[in-house]
Amino acid sequence: xxxxxxxxxxxxxxxxGAFDDPRPRAGEAVMKVKAGAINRIDLYMRDSGKGITHxxxxxxxxxxxxxxxxxxxxxxxxSGDPVILYPMAYxxxxxxxxxxxxxxxxxxxxxxxxxxxxxxxxxxxxEKCYVPMPDGLDWQAAAALPVAxxxxxxxxxxxxPLRPFETVLIMGVGGGVSAACLQMAKMxxxxxxxxxxxxxxxxxxxxxxxxxGINYRDDPVARQVMELTAGxxxxxxxxxxxxxxxxxxxxxxxxxGRIVTxxxxxxxxxxxxxxxLFARQIAIYGSTLGSMDEFRQLLDVAARGAIAPVIxxxxxxxxIASGFGRMERSEQRGKLVVDITA
Length: 342
Ligand SMILES: [Zn+2]
Known about the structure:
By secondary structure, the protein is α/β, with parallel strands linked by helices. Helix content is 29%, strand content 26%. It has helices at 40-47, 95-99, 139-157, 176-187, 199-207, 221-228, 243-252, 274-279, 292-303, 320-328, and strands at 2-6, 14-18, 28-37, 58-59, 63-70, 82-85, 88-89, 109-110, 122-126, 130-132, 167-170, 191-196, 212-215, 234-238, 253-261, 283-286, 311-316, 335-339.
């Protein structure tokens, strides 16, 4: 089959070409991939992969949607079924899995990270990872959902859900997860404030429903947030920028509010400001992907048309380097998808 294969670290280690077809193990089904989507983690795998157990060469790609071509005998899946892939092969037996908290599975195995990924004509994953694709979604929209939208869903509605009467501050609205968080905030009628360094990105965010746009180059974010909220601060901050925005996140959240993070693009070691944390009783928690339950909730909402993924551009596998470059330069305005059929 044709695949995007990482042979060694770095841009030069990426090869698009022939790779062995997947050999499904017991309980696994094979999907013919129609579309994938690019995520920051793909760049991390390309350049470092540190802390993630895997061997090279490996097929990259965490997001994918397509058609079942081979399923176990007793499976409810049938050849030709359109499906979306839940990218995490969870064990189903550990304490986290028993709680239904799949992202904390102790034996998790994520495609494109610890096993072969979706940027290929075929992929084999446990049959429980394939969820029926809702009507009305095309392949590219479906492939854009799992990582960015599921991550956003758990951040917004997981541990301490955003409520309709609350205000959320979303740091750096250009990225896929941030755009998804904005859409979800507006879906429930909450007030959304977004930040960016460019007027053009803020304008696009307003088109997606943002109530206020803050250009962080103009004035410190927290100062602008306090003006917009009559000195109260926001109820929730979504921050996957990290070091560069952390101080402003801590200063923008109201006493008793929460900061949710799913990434640290600009670095992972900002000042903790512990005095502010306890004095103002601020909660900080991390989030990554989402549980199977959360995935089904997200797909239900997508099936109702309440959330439609924002697609920036589509790339053929042969042109994957251009897609990676666009993400690296943070030029994307929504999801970068990969057309596996091209
Ligand atoms: Zn488990």
